[in-house]
Amino acid sequence: MSTSQLFRGDFVHTRSLGSIEILRDYLLRTNEHGYIDHFAPASSPESQSISAVRHPMPIPTGSFMVPTFCDLHLHAPQFMYQGTGLHLELMKWLDEYAFKAEEKLDGDLTLAEKVYKRLIQRLIINGTGTVMLFGTIKTETNLLLARLTQTEGPIRAFVGKLSMDISSRPTYVEASTEESLAAAQDFCDRCTDMIRSMPPEHCMHLVEPVLTPRFVPTCSPALLSGLGSISQQKYVRIQSHMAEAHDQVQHVREERGEEDMNVFLHSNLLTSRTVQAHCTFLSPEDLHRLAATGAAVAHCPLSNAYFSAEPFRLREALDAGVRVGLGTDIAGGYSIDIMDAMRHAVTVSRMREGARIRAKERDQTEEGYGKPLSIDWKEALYLATRGGALALGLPDGCGTFVVGAPFDAQWIEIIDKRNGEGVGGLDFFELERKPWELTLDMVEKWWSLGSTENRVGVWVKGKAIYWQVRDAGPDEKSASSSATGEMN
Prior knowledge:
About 40% of the residues lie in helices and about 20% in strands. By secondary structure, it is an alpha/beta fold. Strands 6-7-8-9-10-11-12-13 form an eight-stranded parallel sheet. Mean pLDDT is about 95; it is low at about 470-488.
């Protein structure tokens, strides 16, 4: 359980695609369960009444709060070799790197614990409060991962034990379809029981098991259908990869005689509980079909650039009503920072828009070229926060600052109040105007150039899980202690 907290200062969030709100000088209070129970201008009568009996922690000039990020696609064991092997095609990369690393962690829980602890630390430092994780095929290794997301954070985590009864690596595969299905069900049951049994002081119960067929090439039709049945019976979430890379798509066509999407659809694995990574080879028509199923997409622009040979049709997906969030896809993507994923999402979309404009100019016609395809930084911030929360079906209000929402937040400092200089890689040259106020341009500069240096604190469901110590006077230290409770 968290302690009640009270903050006064500037807050930034995006409640709908393309919009952004800067809420200046607001008072935010959380209850002991970590949910926001007051959020209003500090000048409002109710806020003044609250402040009269309790001193809020000030978010100083040059700082603001923004919701934590959601990472919808990350391979936890692949963190071990993050940033290597990216010269290979997907199927060869899996053989030479991914399967080996996953098998190694399954055989060495001490190493797995070391890797996973560091992974969780890196996620938190980079402002990620929610993550959807692919694990390995061994149940015990995945239970370890699930437990560490709570004891080392906690962070919101969806942990998937891989299901795969086909593999190009004979030593890294489940023995049969029946054993794979039994193991998937056993993991879901044991993960749920383990988290329920953990004492409240060590666990905020923010982790769920996820059924995880790796992708079609490693799963027999019987395994996929069986996992679909388990999901329906137990109402368990599903994650996988769909229509990701040219060699993978061709493999499925040759082996199964149909498209990725149809294989998942026939297996009852495209539901409102499903998150599919990539989907780069889906046509606009496919995206409308996907929207009708309620399934969400984890858009991983960096790994797509390395492995997909096609960019994701992000604008078309959003227009079709598909729920979309962002993923780092460690280690297919080399950066664990969702801020990089946001930037890459914008970059890729602008290149797609450039290609659309050039094609229209070349053909001298408007027919078939439709509306602009690019997204902007505000839309990317939405995908990283509110959009990701909606894609994952998180509690009401997640990804925003509203009464009733869990307090999942990160404190961002862009200007050092001690000297008026920009923090980290940020420089500001026109700060003389009075009164000073946070502007949209300043938030955009942080979005473009910000780094871990700008992140002062991180909270998940009201609990402080990260605090970067800054020099402060005695009064400020006292206010920090009373307002943040558990983080000191």
